[in-house]
Amino acid sequence: MSAPTHSQWATLITEQRNLASMQIDAMSTRDALQIINDQDKTVALAVEAQLDSIAKATDLVYTALSNGGRLFYIGAGTSGRLGVLDASECPPTYGVSPDLVQGIIAGGLPALTRSQEGAEDLAEDGANALKDRNCSDNDIVMGIAASGMTPFVIGALQYAKTIGSKTIFFSCNPQAAQKVFADAHITPKVGPEVITGSTRMKAGTATKLVLNMITTTTMIKLGTVYENLMVDLSPSCQKLIDRAQRILCAITDLSPQDSIQKLEDAQGDLKTAVVMAKRAVSYETARQLLAHHRGNVRNALESDA
Asked: Strand pairing of 184-186 and 166-170?
């Protein structure tokens, strides 16, 4: 796929001028902020209109991950950075391997902190990025492109299709997105940006919301959450050690001191400590129960086994 032409870019919703902000350069600070805030309020509603599509995408991700596959986010600029951000936050929050959810950005690591705009123009670079990660038909690829036309992203999705990977496409330009093959399309219509073409704003906010929804719900379905508590977190710093202790107290009614001891007895594994305390069983039995129920704490606590 070649880079889009001037006429193609001109038709995109995200490239149109926003009538509400036409005089923003002449406004007071407070009034300019009000315009931005008013526009931001519309983003959640645009995402809500896509809930069926987001659910379809989430089920595809869950199926892939529960069968040994990986999720690859791939994007350029703001879209790529948000994918990398969401992927990087899964391991400490849910205790999963860093390989499970991976973010790929056009231009590589330097693009995370410094714009590499030309890096998005070659479709073959997107395909090669997936090849470098040994992407297979077990994996799922989510292309993120606010414009719906980024060659780097489209090339990756086209390659994923040829190897049998399931695909998801996120864009804030529904008309452009319709031309891109994917197993699921997520296309919130956030409309023109406050600053014309600055898709780090409303489009970026919509992207962050959707990625959060997909990985959070997938991790819940994978059993990394009990009630609304992150029982699979990795206690890798003092904040998370303290959180693990508080979670154990909340679930079991143990005292803070007893929760510390129970976590030590569970060799630092929060899920194991929960099952040990709630079912009054040994470390070995708790581990067996969790293994039998594929790490799902609720099932391990409620089963007759």
From this structure: parallel
